Amino acid sequence: MSGQSHIEREITELRARAAARDFTGRSLGTAMAGVDRQLKRDSKRLGGAGEAWMTVCPAELIARTAITGLNRGELRVAVADSATMYTLDRYLRAGGEAELARASTAPIYRVRLALDARPFTHANAQGTLT
Questions:
Q1: pLDDT tens digit string along 40-97?
Q2: Is residue 1 part of a domain?
Q3: What percent of the chain is modeled with pLDDT above 70?
Q4: Would the N or C end of the chain have less CB density within 10 A of its end CB?
Q5: Would residue 108 count as lying in a domain?
Q6: pLDDT value at position 128?
Q7: In a domain, 26, yes or no
């Protein structure tokens, strides 16, 4: 035989299964299936808004903005600096928000801007932002 008894093989299998479980005791496959469903749902929900944002937002501001969420018709957008926030606010008030709502397949009733450089710090460190 292989030098392992039946009991030792079973213990080895049980240890391998226990290592593949998350802290809730569920297998990783079950947890990953839940994450996959959530990502697909978010992708469908945000997909239309993201595409609309890329077409409606002024080209010079695209690199300085990032969509952070969409909840109950409120699109949350992070902006890299206060100058970008001011310019984008003026654009949205001048009809850009209505244009965005028309272009999006997801319902958008309001756009909330937030000054948050975190989404841009990694890209800035790589030298991709101007």
A1: 777 776 778 888 899 999 999 999 998 888 888 899 999 999 999 999 999 999 999 9
A2: no
A3: 78
A4: N
A5: yes
A6: 44
A7: yes
Q: Does residue 58 lie in a domain region?
A: yes
CB burial readout 92-102, b (16+ within 10 A) else e: beeebbebbbe
CA distance from start to end of the chain: 67
In this prediction the pTM is 0.61
Q: What's the token pair of residue 49?
A: 């808004």
Q: Report the distance separating Cα 75 and Cα 66, nearest Å.
A: 11
Question: How many domains does the chain divide into?
Answer: 1
Contacts of 10 (CB under 8 A, 6+ apart): none
Give residues with Cβ within 8 angstroms of 54, minimum separation 6: 62
